[in-house]
Structures
1.
Amino acid sequence: MSQSRHEEPVVESEKKTEIDQQDAETIHSVNTDRDPTDLTHIRSHVSTHDVPIEHYSSYIPVPDEVYDRLPPSRKVVIVTLLSFCSFLAPISSTTILAAVPEVAATYSSTGTIINLSNALYMLFMGVSPCVYGPLSQVYGRRITCLITAILFMGCSLGTALSPNLVSYFIFRILTAFEGTAFLTIGASCIGDIYRPSERATAMGWFLSGTLIGPAFGPFIGGIIVTFKSWRVIFYLQTALAGVATIGAYFLLPETAHHMKIDDLVGLPLRAKARVLWGMLNPWRVIRLYKYPNLIMVALASSSLVWNMYSLLTPIRYILNPRFNLTTPIQSGLFYLAPGCGYILGTFGGGKYADYITIKWTKKRGVRVSEDRLRSALPFMGIAMPICMLLYGWSVEKRFGGIALPVIMMFVQGVAQLFCFPSLNTYCLDVMQQNGAEVIAGNYMIRYLFAALGSATVLPAVEKIGVGWFSTISALFLVVSSLATWAAVLWGRGWREKIDQKRRANRGKMAEMEHELKVVMDNGKEKEMV
């Protein structure tokens, strides 16, 4: 297949060096009955914060050949496994929604307090990527995924066995922290094995797990809590986590082009510890937000997640009284509407994002990462705000019956699957050498907003009504669409401007280091004399 066109050309000598290094080193996948698949190391470009090498562009092309390391059938297996793993943490965030009154009764608490545990769950889903994004860059995707899968399984079991409210909160928080690693690692793996022109299609299938989980979770929880104890929800979650652990062990190879831990070979222990802390420091993720284009895209992702969780969280408290529903399983049926929308959107959302990317690449003659974002704009800026307004005010003013809110939830589900693949894939495209950290930062911001939405939706709806709260959510979507449009227009220029500042600062630092070295050398010469 021909070389992909990028924003910046690859220098031929550098490319040859990289290919020579590819021939010299390989990483093997896990043992199977047949010969293991060779996954070749590609030297990454590491910042001076890690080792004394600095590259001054945030966009560094990756040789096209690395995406042919695995056959298409193996890639499909990996994406299927990752989609299943990504299903677990989000479904855990909503499965309990249908059982909130039952959990509250068990611990002699209130629905508001139990919903606070869900908000804390989202909060720690936001904190987790800051840890596991850099960790997967240093030690690789496979080992990080295996460790977190085992810990997620243990914490799920702990939640099921929680004897009191405090232990319930603690294990829920730990479950969120471990489970979100699947989302960061999964997206990074897709960036490792798919070309930019193919990436969004694979991302759409991967994201189907992250979105279908929250939508179908309450329905599953409603069935369970209608006939069994709410603790069975977490026993089931433990079993699913066990399946994910076994699947990751046997089916997930190491996909990272290069593991940064290899750069530390031969360093003294003290220097190794200092550099390793620089590599793993969660501040690496936050520091990327010096780039305004990443802020705009994080805002867009946050508006989608805010919209999703503020829509799903209060269903039992809003729609049950509105339509005189009496059982958890009845309210759980409402969650199927967005879930079916997510399933339908899976088939077209990612492909449409790739189509827009290819179209604009042909039009320009060069691939610009921001062009991919165009595919999300009509859905995020027009379709979803309209759906949110109709949903909120139809419930508030009691018109349209059951059909109108159900249709609006379904259309929103489809629209979200036309937005998320574009936004997530942009995070992998725009800084390919730091893809795991960029996607981690995006997940951090979006789940902080999800936590805020989960915590405020019930009190806000009780205070101002579901109609006005839906209006606020719709306005948030419109504002985030404008921010995304700004990134499309000026994002490339923003990146180049920040890179220029980095070059200038690095040049000044190099001059200061040189002058200091000259002074020290002169001092040593005088001492010798």
2.
Amino acid sequence: MAAYAALLSLKYIIQQIQLHPCPPISFDQNQVDSLTDNLNFLQDFLEGYSYGCSSISREAVDVLESRIKNAALAAEDLIETRVVDQIHGGSTAHHGKKISSSDFHQDLEMVIQDMGFIKKDVMEIKENHIGIEDHLLRKSSTLGGAGASSSPSTRQNAMVGFDDLLIEVMDKLTERQSNLRIIPIVGMGGIGKTTLARNVYAKPLIMHHFDIRAWVTVSQNYNVQDILIEILLCISKDESLESLSAKSEGELGERIHKTLWGRRYLIVLDDIWSAQAWDKVNLFFPENGQRSRIMITTRLSDVALIGSHGIVMDFLNEEKSWDLLCRYVFEEEDDCPPELEEIGKKIAKNCEGLPLSIVVIGGHLAKSKRTRKHWEYISENTNTIVNLEDNKRCLKVLQLSYNHLQVHLKPCFLYMGFFPEDNKIRVSCLVKLWVSEGFVKPINGKSLEVVSGEYLQELCDRNLIFVHKRGSYGNIKFCSIHDLLRDLCLREAEREKFFYVTRLHEPTIPQGINTQRRIGIHQSMLEKDYHPDPVLHTLQYVPLVRSLICNFEEGLPLLDFRLLRVLKVDDKKSYIDNNRQYEYSVEVVFRLVNLRFIAIQSDGPKSSGFPSSVNLFWNLQTLVVNGTWDVVAPCEIWNMTQLKHVHFDRLELPDPPTGGKDDKFVLENLQTLTSIRNFKCGEELVKRIPNINKLQIFYFEEPQGFFSYCLDNLGHLHKLESLRFSLYPINKPSLNDLVQNLILPNSLKKLTLEGTYLKWEDMNTKIGLLPNLQVLKLKVNSFVGTKWETVEGQFCNLRYLLINMCSDLEWWTTDSSHFPRLEHLVLQQLDKLNEIPSGIGEIPTLQSIGLNLCHDDAVISAKRIFDEQEDLGLRVRVVARDSHFESLAGPNFQVETW
């Protein structure tokens, strides 16, 4: 995996240099062609092996991967050192040796030759099939392996916490629908899918309901013939393994079809990993109108699409986790001893709702001393014990999911371990990091950020990454990873030297730290005696480091990190601490010219400036600086053609230069500009940012007013999908000219307005006709007037509508056809709004209504709509100023008092 990531990263560097309008170095074209040819060949080889298409032994591949990784990293070091030297005017390299142009080409030629030798070895291995077949691939596809688990144990595994799901599955199996139905059970490895299926399978009601039952475990590396044989052995007592083994797949399938025809059957396909496996056997299951059912268990959401109305298994809550732990620890006792209950609940909580983890730790506790001291030790080391206990059972279950990943997803998954434990990771940041790390394989017609988002969705579909929070139009906003999966990431990363994350109280500098490319430093806020000095001292020994992700309370010394590409530092304090020797500022960071990704907190509310040397960043893509206000960017920013994402707390952009050599640059890669102050939106500026996708702009009153601003030019930003437009004027009348000139592009999908003081009638001309608008957020004083009357033919794609503190609004007249696709309505602090129009409740797509501190009559109208639409799944959440609405509360009508 690390070899594949290194190949992708090297290809990305070469591509960025070749496509750069002012490349920092030049290549010999013959060398580039040879290097690229070798990289493509080795990448194809690793991708082919990843999918299990190779007969090469795992041991041989490990050796090859190590050689490939080392060669790719050597080339990367050579090229990036040369780039930094050239930008800094030929300063010495990190080895203290000056690299001349001829030395660079000679050294690069040696790396190319080394890769050529590796390529030759791979070709020889592929041609001669050197190496034993991977026994891991064969072991799980043999009949003996499948047969061992094909008949589910009738022993009732503890099904604590999933009683409702058990009933739901049984209802689906026994309902009166006559046609064949496929019922998927989907969830993370260890969540209890097989246990749930086994408990259902062994229930007397199910045993009597079906004429024939069969259970077969499919697994990752399945064999169709073995699956069919196992089914026949379950459904036909007259068959023998010996006789069936001599038959072809077609003969076995025909026998199954004849045996099942005319009978009510239940087939369980446990642990299925691909839709292809289903495609190869499903034609043998007859649709006979007998209320037959097929139940599948899978970790993969796309496989679950085989069926309909599936069961999605989620983590247990703390109460159910404790109940399950007690079931395993105190099997023959009524209750937990009082002195162990508090620490026992902490242990259960540490398992984060994963049943397999709870079962494994419960088995350990059942066999060990029942003393508070021992249980406190367990609570402090829960994950370590879970991973080692029961012959590493839990770790092996989770490892299967990682092994099954396609190779292009593995670096992105392992990267999740780079973040602190229990971290809620902002997805917009994560996908940018994956791109900056060079993990994302280019796809024609798609930006790397879009491809990166698709990688994230794939990992979510495989239940390896979990959605923590979604945005207003369904996008994943925050994600997380289970602690045990993070432990898996850390183990694999350590094995492959992919990244290093500091451990608390680590007594010595770990061996090999000087070769680490990625380092994470995270202080646990619970560790009061944690001192970062040894960790910071460690950073002196990592001259090749490319990525630093830090989260602790001390200043970070930026030593000789001249090759650094990613810097993400979320310090809790300012970067200048008078009590420490470390000083950290924007100016210091801006000397690290190889950076692609910067996310820092600056050294004060007013920065000493935005250095004009910013254009020395030859490949800077993401620039995020928080904590600095009213910074004016230098004109050199218009030369930074690689920039994709820019955010300051308040940044003012200068007008682009006209005339001269700097006039030619267009920031075609720029996608995001946020918190831009007094954005003039001139014609020349708009031409320089043709592909801007997300824009957040706000305006403060200036002495000369807004006369020089040209907001009608916003309509020329044809790629703009998300716009936040905020006004903070001293005098409302000065707004008229500015707001009336506002023209919005048809490409908009999300629009947030604040302080614009538009009239509700303006909605019909400026916003309602936007054909792609999905999210509309009307914040404080964005619209004024007592009445909003909508018309048909507008808001044709709007999914989410928020109205906040438009305090004049009393009457809202609308019809269901005016918001034909609305899913979520949120109303906040509308003190005068008399009611929610009844037509809103008739919108067939409506899923939720939220009211926060609104007029009582609006709450009553929401209750009326809810009563009429409850059967359609409508949810309502009310936050009221007093408790008199609490009597209205119910399962889907939530009431909170503010």
3.
Amino acid sequence: VYIRKHPLEIPPPSEKDWLKDDEEDFFLQDPDRKRDALPQPFRMINKLVMLVFENAMEIIERREMLREAQKLKVQPTKCFPTAEFQVTGRANCLAVSGKYIFVGLSVGLSAFKVSDCKEVCAWDAVKTEICAIHALDLGNECHVLLAVDEMGLVWLFCFHKESFVLIKILNEVEDISRRSTCVEVVLSPGGDYAGVLLQGNTKAWLEIYRLPKDSWLKEMEKSPGAAAGLACRERRSSWTSVGDIFLLQESPVSANKADAKLSLPVLLLKVKPPKPITGSSFKSPLDALKKVDDDSMLGLGYNHLIKDSQWEQQEAIFCSTYRDYLEAEGERESKEEIPRHATFHFLLPSWILQVGPEMKVQPGVPAGISVHWDGSHNFCLYLLNRPLKEKVDSDPKPDVVWPCAAPVACSAVSSCSRYLALACEDATITIWDKHLGYPLSVTAILEERLIRSIYFL
């Protein structure tokens, strides 16, 4: 048995147990630092692996932050279809008016009820493809429809008691070479007017029609059988017999006889785009003043005293001054062309439309239209309360002209018809109060920005 002779004591420190300077912080060192002593290329491989790992962690953290931020946002409500309906052919467009849904098909028109999505009537007399529909409820189970087919023809229909009545093709001509195509169709609030923007081979123009909706309602009430079965057919659940198909093809024969009983729309205005401003032929200011009717409004800028030589001299000075910039962009001949597209709105009575005391103004009925053509500085207003003429003026003068500092790019009218927004090509937006007749605000967007469309929310 081993027996300790002396009691247990702490031995005194010796010099060999002292810590060296490079080992004082050994407990704070990273264990991975031992890899620094590895030879090449292991150190380089280790750094690349760690770099990839750190980048991956940063991407993961960034995605987690985006995922958490997305959860905090208000998620949109997902809507699923509650019902569906079958159509004949291909559906191209649709419009809702009252309790009916009108669908433009590859073979004609169809009307469905909103309540049960069942088809109540269809029109396929000509087997034409409908590309656009505009519909409006006139009351007393009567609706007005403007349909544009694949050839650019505008078909005016009246839908009364679940039956289509063809009233007129607005831009139909006998000579095919003179046929014009429809670019845009607009129905005024209430259905009193209709605007059609047409394009020919070399020109474009805007036609404004007055729709005799009151006469249509009276004529429908007097002859309720005139609209029954006109160019339409009622679809039923069972369509299996050949006789049904044959009867559908024979229905247009009786339609043409009764369609003429409804009053036709009246062409009220035919607005053409402004012509390019050229040199003046006036010899004195008095000759130019004779062309002006009165001094109550600004004109389109045609009655001036600038000669063609002055235009040419100004262009030569501009080209010589900014020759370096023009050569950098490339020499392009800028020829002024007549614009072929216009934006127009129907306007209710307001202070910006100076209606004379002899003209009757009805509340809720448009009193004028606003028109601006692409590339034009002028925003033109035309009154609609004009006396009917046997021959419509092909180039009427605007009743009000607003000249802008830059070409008008787009415009919009609020749903309450009180506010008008104008956006010019210099990225300036002006909001007008039509009832008071003055601008509310002018906002300039950042430079080198082009405003293509503007809307009121």
4.
Amino acid sequence: MAAGEQHSTPQISSSSKNSSGRPVTPFWKEKYERDAWRYWDIFYKRHEDKFFKDRHYLDKEWGEYFEAQDGGNLVVLEVGCGAGNTIFPLLSTYPDIFVHACDFSSRAVDVVKKHKDFRPDRVNAFACDITSEQLIEDVEPSSVDIVTMIFMLSAVAPDKMPLVLQNIRNILKHGGRVLFRDYAFGDLAQERLMSKGQQISENFYVRGDGTRAYYFSNEYLVDLFSKCGFTLEEICVHNKTVENRSLDLIMNRNWIQATFTLNPVGSLSPNNQHVHHTREGKEDKLVVETSQKSDSEEIDLFVDFSNMFGISRYLDEAQIVRIKAKGHDFKIKVLAKEYQHTCKLTGLMLWESAHFMCSLLAENPSIVAGRSVLEIGCGSAGICSMVAASFAQFVVATDGDEESLDLLRKNTSSNLEAEFLDRILIRKLLWGNEDDMKAVKELSGNGAGFDCIIGTDVTYNPDAILPLFKTARELISDKGNGDSGAVLILCYIQRRVDEDSILSAAKAQGFRLVDKWINGVNESNGVISSWFCGNDVCSAFWNVTFSILYFQV
């Protein structure tokens, strides 16, 4: 170490059993289940056979089970075969085995069939959702000696795991084995997923790409298999320390490995007890770089460092969405809403309220005509600001996230003509931040404040409601009154914050509710009702329930 150089100790990051996060809503839980195959199809479309390394450790861990007895041929079923990272190393090492390989991603099966070592006389590859489709349609009943389940069962919803095992029982010989390896409870990735609000149910989470992962405890796994007619032969939990030098982190990764038999003979140890091990080897230390996956053939855990520690690669998944409103046709780049539970940057997505308000502004230009307009929490889409720029004196579009603002700049520049682009200023605004508020207010013209402030889907976080109204109060103009007075318009879908809480916070900051349109119902023929006259905006969004609040100071 050079003179004057300081040695820093890497930060140790480990999982906490007491972590908690907001579960995904029932709607998204159902969607992730219904479209599970699609997320894996997308995964294999993107990565093909380049994500996982070949699993040569099966020979080391379970080699004795793959030796055919009495010169016979061994039949293996790989459940969740993916791109073939398990089956092709097995075929290379053991020339006398025949492999059935299934996956519920048809694209993964296609990758297997295109592999240079694929031979139909040695591999039967087929697509199958074994939570709902019977294996006996493609595999003879009671014909399989070994079933391999390598990081597969964790992708299945816990309530459907027994269906998987019952399905496997139908094709497995009596005394046949299940070789199992998957994620273990307490793995660092589990904590990261939980802390981001990605929990579907207990120990079950959704990743950034929509695929899911369950983290097994010994007790849960043994109980699950035993209730389905399997007997435990051996189980162990692997603990491996992984050091990431560029992120200065030491991470504890855990996975569980087990062997089960179906109605075996002599399945217990001499002491009439199952073998139960935990391996904690201090020598199990691996050094990797951020851009690399593990160099160890014993680690193939499905979580890369960029996903786990927030090095953003979400923009690579952004897609072009076409938004039409009266007189406007935008093509904007945003992140799909499937990522709402996995990406903390909600501003990278387009939310329904923004689309709804965009349509209302296009149909009712008088809302912003000739006014100075501020959009708060506009995110990366900016469609309300872009419509407003056609009619307003000028528009300041703001958000608290730099990455969302970068994408917003690209979206506005690619969609607006120079005349309207010159009317939009894009600035960072963290609600409650004095420096940000001062800088934005100076843009309003002599620091007088804005005539119209618009916010869509900015009321979902209870902790942000007070800063939201404090910021709006600081930036709204005090000039004028009645119809000519400055206005604050909030359009939202009610989530975790109810109307009373919103109105209470608004009143505390000096705002007066002038009109409201709640869940499509307007209590009077006020200003908001007039926005829907002579157009079909409501019918275009008939399946979504919106609320609009109209305030003045």
